[in-house]
């Protein structure tokens, strides 16, 4: 009888023939998902039999993945920071959280008040940024906004599953329109690809992830001026705005934050050394 290890190795071998980039442990992720295991428990059970009734379902997951559908959408969820996030709802999908965004959370946590505090996340998507900040700032409260009903539904689901619903408010609105301040910290990972960036994306992203979550406009930086102006109006004096940016946008976005009145404007690199977060303080 095939073991769990046989099952995931067979999947991984089949994925070697895929005409797109495949991560090293996708087979393991599918088996973990189907068996209802925590990822950390998989290796200890590698030699247990793979239930026969799951073989058909594993084949179905593999077949979907072989079409180029991202693993996160095939499984319906994806890990980010310390939790798993649902990214598929009956009504649609949200942007898949990227490891690149972890630096936005790390930087936000550095400027959160020691106790309490109020944070806003513009473009909450799956809720992975707001949820991660609140998870690690256990007495803070937060507001997440989005213009996508699918995103707001998934954020509500994810924040509730993490026990954060009582500390969060989700609002269907562009930027912070109609949302009352003041906030101590405002974060955002807005859509920032240009039209040309979008056309050049690998099909695994372009054909599957929501365009409105990725593209900021013809140059990509279009969302930042309004975002910065609204954030400046709704921050406490001393509060911080932190935004994720594309790797070539640091100079432009720093200029936008200064133009909106922010001081101490600076860019922080991600773990690979690429400019990734621009921050500014309201004085
Ligand atoms: C790049 S995704 C970020 C999602 C999530 N915060 C993350 O980091 O994975 C951008 C999100 O902003 C939302 N969005 C786009 N324009 C917006 C606007 N004007 N106001 C609020 N949200 C917006 C999109 O629907 C999408 O969910």
Task: Briefly characterize the structure.
The chain is of the alpha/beta class. It is built from twelve helices and 13 strands.
Structural notes for this entry:
- By secondary structure, the chain is an alpha/beta fold.
- It folds into 2 domains: 4-68; 99-281, Rossmann fold (3-Layer(aba) Sandwich).
- It contains 12 helices and 13 strands.
- The strands form 4 sheets. It has a 7-stranded mixed beta sheet with strand order 7-6-5-8-11-13-12, sandwiched between helices. A two-stranded antiparallel sheet has the order 1-2. The chain has a two-stranded antiparallel sheet with strand order 3-4.
- Helix 1 (4-15) packs across helix 2 (26-35) and helix 5 packs across helix 6.
- The N and C termini lie far apart (67 Å).
- Bound molecules: S-adenosylmethionine.
- S-adenosylmethionine binds at residues 94-95, 97, 101, 122-126, 128-129, 145-148, 151, 174-175, 189-191, 212-213.
Determine the N-to-C terminus distance: 67 Å
Q: Roughly how much helix do the residues carry, as a percent range?
A: 25-40%
CATH top level of the largest domain is Alpha Beta
Structural class: alpha/beta
What hetero molecules are bound to the protein chains?
Answer: S-adenosylmethionine
CATH architecture of the largest domain: 3-Layer(aba) Sandwich
CATH domain fold name of the largest domain: Rossmann fold
CATH superfamily of the largest domain: Vaccinia Virus protein VP39
Number of strands: 13
Can you tag this structure with a few keywords?
single chain, 283 residues, alpha/beta, Rossmann fold, 2 domains, seven-stranded mixed beta sheet, two-stranded antiparallel sheet, 12 helices, 13 strands, binds S-adenosylmethionine
